[in-house]
Amino acid sequence: MNTAYSRHKRHIRISTFMLLLLSVLLAACTVPELSATPQSESIPNTITLTILYTDDEHGWMEGWNQGPGAAELLGLWQAQFGYDPADPRFLVLSGGDNWTGPAISTWFKGESMVEVMNAMGYDASAVGNHEFDFGLENMQHTVSLADFPYLAANMRTKPHEQLPANLGIQPYTLIDVNGLRVGIIGLANLRTPQVTNPANVQAFDFTPYVEALQQTVPQVRDAGADVVMVVGHLCNQELRHTALKTQDLDIVLFGGGHCHETLAERAGDAVLITGGPYLATYAWAKLTVNTATGEVLRAEYDVEANRGGATDPKVAEIVARWRAETEATLGEPIGYLAQTLPERSEPILRLITETWLLGYPNADVAITNRGGVRDALRAGPVTIADIISVMPFDNVLIDMTMTGAQIEAFMQAQGKKIFAGGIQQNGDSWVLNPTGEPLRRDAVYHVLVNDYMYAGGGSYQKLAEYDPQGYDTGIDWRQPVIDWILAQKSTPEQPLDEAIRALGK
To answer: How far apart are CA 120 and CA 135, in angstroms?
Structure first.
């Protein structure tokens, strides 16, 4: 189960504004010059490990916001660190959420991103919540394609509390680095059932981080590990807390993820790093280790922008091949936009919810979560691939009933986390679009939501309580959007923009 992976491997992109700002600031920082080859020869009986760390890649192999992508990041690592996937002194690790994102990854359910990560030489990844997005059968298949293990020591099957080995998920892995045995333990996020479709993880329990490490670290030591590291799909605050609560376990490095943050600091003797989302930034650490005792004698660490290096030809070829397949499958234009609709903006959310109502006229109101919208809809030709990038999750529409009072209470409780079509707020009350008729508190309305929300994802448990017998329409949540765009027959001379502004009015 806990395979020792050889280091001689088979195969030699936060909010938009904040991530852009971070990239600029990091690029402007003066970073100490690093040796192209990890140096340990000057200190007897030592080896220097260089850890290159990313997280929340979300399939952005082509580069987030038209910036450098995976091929350029690999070129940067090669130039700055002398990175060679065959050199055992390098470890490339991920904090999880590898694949749900743009169509080039989402449409192929992560297979394309795993091929890219194989070519980049990844050694291990934590299991992120979005690894479950396409169901367990697909997860098992995609994990099996990886040349590196997916790790989660705190994930157990119900009711027997067994490790999910049937999915190919391991609690830890051991890597031999020139005789030094490095144990890497994975942690899945405790809130995984709330931040993926709950139906996909209902068979599992996710146990507390500290408890899982207290159980697993001794096992890793008994298996021969000289040094122990953790890759976790944990936000920075959780990562700090976990590191401080497990200082007695002598874990030398913790890697995080999930909240689209960056981090490079110490907690006690441990190094904490989080690379940031979309391959737009990454973290690194250089640890000089006493090979006899496993003690870390020196540690350097930082977060940097993916400024891009020389394009790695092998990764570039893989990305180009998947781009061609994406275009062949999904690249036919279905409409035309004159102006970009920003990610999670009111216009893009109105487009989604109001077209649901047009495509399913039995419903009165449509509600969606802003978090399910993952990209802008950019000016120019609009393709199905663009819609998939905006709405990457495989959801269907649920027709449920709610009273006017329940709708008002839900809208007030969720605030800006959600957006509703078919209704709008008029002072202290709500009215139906386009008639302006007041929402009656005692009346019963048909409400469309996606199945992620209905199943309780994102802490939306109240929805199913309102109507336990919600009707699964079987309609892919993207389909009404695509159908409406096609029906507009838009052109560069008559773009979609005005029709979108008129939706719901």
So the answer is: 26
